[in-house]
Amino acid sequence: MICVALPGLAISTEEGQLTGRGLEGFYRAGRRVLSRCEIRVAGREPLAVQARMASADRARFVGTLRTSPQAGPDPDVIVERNRFADGTERITLHSAAPRPLRLPVEIVLGTDLADLGAIASGSAGPELTASVHGSGLRWSCATGNASVTAEPPPSDALASAGLLRWELDLPPGGSRTVELRVRPDGAGPLRAVGRAATSPLAAARAEGDDQRVPALLRTSIEDLQALLLRDSANPADTHLAAGAPWRCGMAPADALVAARMALPLGTGLAAGTLRILARTQLLAPGTQSGMIPGPRRDAGPHLPPQCTGTEATLLFPALLAEARLWGLPDQATEELLPAAERCLSWLRTTVGDGTYLRDPNQGGPVRCETQAHAHRAALLGADLLDACGRTGGAALRQWAQALRTAFRKDFWIEDRGGGRPAAARAPDGSLVPHLGAAAVHLLDTGLLGGGESAPGLLDKVRTEHLARLLGSPVMDSGWGLRGLGAKEPGFNPFGHRAGAVRIQETAIAVAGLAAAGYEKEATSLLRGVLAAAETFGHRLPEMYAGEQRTEGGAPLPHPAACRPAATAAAAGVLLLTTLAGIRPDAPAGSVTLRPVRSAPLGEIGFTGLRVAGAPFSVRVSRLGLAMVEEAADGLQLGV
């Protein structure tokens, strides 16, 4: 159970006690400031009866005690613990006893002040010795200090045992609360970005026939808010951390993907993310000039690791183009346009006289998904350049046309089932034939002005073949889309990109299939993710095992998955808003609706979305008809 309000985390098991084992503890900026917080009442540990996430940044634990065994089996003291990501632990004892109680309460505290990475690798040191400090305890080591203060102050503190002690008087039906505040020395109260009035994310709401819908949207937005971080050099700009607990910093490609999927919540997150990454863009002359740097990541068993910097560089102009259509102000667009032009210039320079965008490493493959990203960047970038009165759009469209022609000839593997797209072309020209979720990027063509989807790399017949493959049991696990087909060599249901269900790619598949008119396949994947989300308390993890769904079963959690994760939380927004098919063109003052006509979840309504900088509300009836209920003044419904 992970409470998040970055840079604060609190990681717990369902028992509620922090024992110092594993990852348990309070963290600030990646350092564990408290690892042990164990409570005893009248010499005994409360019996844990419930643990649940109350919000993205708060977990609630309830335990019970019998202070008088002669009174029968019913507990007469309830111990409620509310644990917050900001480093606060609020412990309340409620008495149901018929007589006054005087209860000794002891809390044992400890920490190693270890870095999260050291804890994960098993190399954290022993607990440190505490010293009494004000109304609590303090720990010190060469890398920092941390302290716990208590309110009310304890009646006794024993530093050698890390023990704080109270004698609490509870009248019949009465309550007493002890509050602990944990923080590094010198650090003020945690001010999470997502809790500020200046949060870039709209507090949208959903309602409808399916009660899972409002819960998923609410939790997804809470998780996005919890993962928001300010740029240290430019505090007005915010971006999403990749996920907790493992990736609490910037991952350029993930941040751009999540900001794009979250555009229905406003353009502020996209603007901040783009500004932050524009400042990292490589400007020195050379083959990398114009790139957004990014680390390498695993690409599964059939391909070498890929450069996420390539993906980020191609996502940058596409996000800027779509953010402008959703209502990004002209001034912000103009400010970011030079960086987008440099990304597009890098694309054209890297392709050179060839047709395909190859991996940047020598002798690397030509990946299918990279061509999809490049094609989308070219078409959306050309649209952006034309709209802003810049040159270069015609050349980008001409190259995109050449890429489409070549791709359709070079990247399709014919077979008796109608064929499939190749995952990549090896340096010797041979095709890498495995079927994986990366193929969904061929359906994600992007949005142009007037509510039109950009053309894709596949023709209509081959798009249909791909849709049928994605909807087959080989790819659709019943819980979402597998990262690798179940019949492919190297399939592993827990494989990060070798069979696990990744929410980001499943959401892209649902949106792409729905836009292309393949509602049956889109609906099956959507329902699978909704069912999985319910088992995860509507907080979708980054990924989970791609085992086949069975009657009465549940998806298996992945032990290394971030939860919450930026792309998974943003995917929850995309999955649901896809049902309304919102396609804005704010500069033209119009919005087009292309709802899923089959209305697979019955009636659904959204309030508090943002289009053209103003609240936007839309409802889709059980007949699949969409109606705008609130919009910016002058915004016209397109056809």
- Helix/strand/pairing category: alpha+beta
Number of helices: 12
Rough shape?
elongated
What value does the average pLDDT take?
Answer: 94
The percentage helix is: 25-40%
Largest sheet: 8 strands, antiparallel
- In the CATH hierarchy, what is the architecture of the largest domain at level 2? Alpha/alpha barrel
Our estimate of the beta-strand percent is 25-35%
- Order of strands in the sheet with most strands: 7-8-9-10-17-14-13-12
Count of beta strands: 35
What's the number of domains?
2
**What is the CATH class designation of the largest domain?**
Mainly Alpha
**What is the fold-level CATH name, i.e. the topology of the largest domain?**
Glycosyltransferase
Provide tags for this entry:
639 residues; alpha+beta; Beta-galactosidase, Chain A, domain 5; Glycosyltransferase; 2 domains; eight-stranded antiparallel β-sheet; five-stranded antiparallel β-sheet; 12 helices; elongated
